[in-house]
Structure formats: structure tokens, C-alpha cells
Amino acid sequence: MIEELKKHADVLEDVSLNKYNTFHIGGIAKYLVSPLSINDLVETIKILDTNKVPYFILGNGSNVILSSKKYEGAVIRMNNLSGIAVHPELNMAYAEAGAMLPRLVLETVNKELTGLEFAGGIPGTIGGSIYMNAGAYNGCIMDYVASVSVLNKETYEIEELANEDIEYSYRNTIFKKEHKYIILSAKFFLKKGEKSSSMAILEDRQRRRIESQPINFPCAGSVFRNPDGDYAWRLIEACNLKGTSIGGAEVSEMHGNFIINKNNATSDDVYELINLVHDTVLEKTTVDLIIEQEFIGWD
Ligand SMILES: Cc1cc2nc3c(=O)[nH]c(=O)nc-3n(C[C@H](O)[C@H](O)[C@H](O)COP(=O)(O)OP(=O)(O)OC[C@H]3O[C@@H](n4cnc5c(N)ncnc54)[C@H](O)[C@@H]3O)c2cc1C
User: Fold this and answer.
1) What is the phi/psi pair of residue 159, to 5°?
2) Same-domain pairing of 168 and 270
3) Which of ligand 1's atoms lies nearest the C-alpha of 171?
4) Mean pLDDT score of the chain, rounded to an integer?
């Protein structure tokens, strides 16, 4: 199987996932597979299915909590699929799933298109960001997506889904619910803007992040979704959980809804700390916080 896979993808075996996620945790993956093109991705999936090898897609690993157990399957990375094309004359941009969102933001702003500035500091890929409808400062990516090209894992067909065919809400999409699709690329509709005012917004948002988030520590952004009418950080801080730690993982002193890898945390440290925060908030406030990050490889 490996020789067949290598015709379509860069393949590494027995790879530590530690450096492929922003928490810097996780175990060994049997295969780390980076398809060379969209057609090669389709062939890769067919080969894995034929050989009954389980797989999952990893974007930039900035919203996942990976288990430390060995993953006896293939982790598929989209890093070879990272093309971006901006068409200011059409108010459109196109990006492949493996392209980084902040790069798309800068390339659109440089061509005087406005809309995506809210996402300048979200360290994810286009695929991972659409999957969970990433957002900040009252903006979310799905509000700017015209269509998404996907691989249907059941039929191996490539489909084009228009925005109106994609169910989405706050930090949620049909992709998260159904797991039937691999996101390949997306088209974005934007508006004519002015580079200087877009840059001013980007700088303001970056300053606000530096002031409020522990961005110098490995982490995966906000741990919990904000409950209706409230903020997860407010509830966590009201329960005096800031600074609480298990092993090397700590509830950030700077922002209650961030857990940081302060000192060589293990996956289990992070997992247990998330549970402790969840259970304490539930007990003290009766709010059942919902996790925003994804646990992968824990069953
Ligand atoms: C410092 C910091 C700040 C952050 N700030 C924000 C913020 O302001 N707003 C916000 O929304 N998030 C934020 N995040 C979280 C994270 O960056 C976003 O959720 C990001 O969009 C995740 O993208 P990713 O490529 O890293 O996805 P990953 O973490 O790699 O994957 C997340 C999920 O998406 C799936 N997936 C990835 N690519 C594909 C694909 N091509 N097809 C199908 N499924 C796919 C994966 O299987 C996984 O289930 C922050 C994270 C950090 C570390």
C-alpha cells in the first residue's frame, strides 16, 4: 500500500504529531500523508479505504486536542494544497483547503478587498476554519464563503456546495455534524475596500489579541464556546479557576477560556484540566459549557 500511496502523496511513517498541532501534544501517527494535488487526495482516500486504513484530516492543528495513544491510521495533511488566487475585479478570492487563513486575509487586503479582516489572527487553514465556522469580533468565515468544493467520502465525487446549501451557525457547520465531506477549496465574496483602513483594523485586532490572549504559550485558542448571553471566560474566572493546573497544563492567568501548555503538558493533562474546568463551572453556576476544540483519537 505504501508504494501506491507514494505515487500520490508525501508519506512519512511513525511520526510524532507533537509539532503538527499548536498545543504541541499528541502521540505517534502510523502514517502522515500529504497528497500532492486534489486529484491525488481523491486517489489517497480510495487507497486508504481499500486497505481499510482509518484516517482523519489535520489542518494546522490549532483547534484539536490529540490523544497520546498511537494512531493506527493515516493523518492527512493538506499542506501541499495551499494555493490562493485573488480577483479584485470580481470582488472574489479562491483558496485551497491547506492555505493559511491569515495569508488569505493579507492577500485580499493587499488587493484592496475588505471583509476578512476579523480573521487576521486565527491561526488555522481554510479547511479547518470552514469546518468549524471560525470567527472573531462578530465576524465568521461562513458569512464570506460563496461556495465550497468538497470531496464526498462516500461517493468519491467532488461536489460544489453553494453557501445556501451549507447549514452553519456560531462555531458550527454541517461539515462538523456529518463528517461526510473533505473540504478541498472555497470561493469568497468580498467588497472593495481600502488597504490603509483594512490594515488599521488588522493592527487593532492584533493589539487586542496580544493584550488579552496568552499567545506566547502553546494552546488551541478558546476551549469552550460562549453560552447564550454570556462568556465562557467570565464563568471560568468567576469560579476562580485562572491559574489552576494539572501537570504541565494551566488555565491561563491572562484569559480564563485558554488552557496553555506551560511546561511539557501531556494530552492527558490537558484532557483532565478541561474536564475539571467544565465540571467546576457546572457545579458552581449550573452552566454546561460546550467544548469548542475537537478531541481526536481518544476512543
Ligand atoms: C492562539 C489561537 C487563537 C485562536 N483564535 C481563534 C479565534 O479567534 N476564532 C476561532 O474561531 N478560532 C480560533 N482559534 C482556533 C483555531 O485557530 C481555528 O478554529 C481554526 O480555524 C482551526 O483551523 P485548523 O486548520 O487549525 O484546524 P484543525 O485544528 O487542524 O482541525 C479542526 C477540525 O477541522 C477538521 N478539518 C481540518 N481541515 C479539514 C478539511 N480540509 N476538510 C474537512 N475537515 C477538516 C479536522 O479534522 C478537525 O476535526 C485560535 C487558536 C489559537 C491557537
Assistant:
1) -120, 150
2) no
3) 11
4) 96
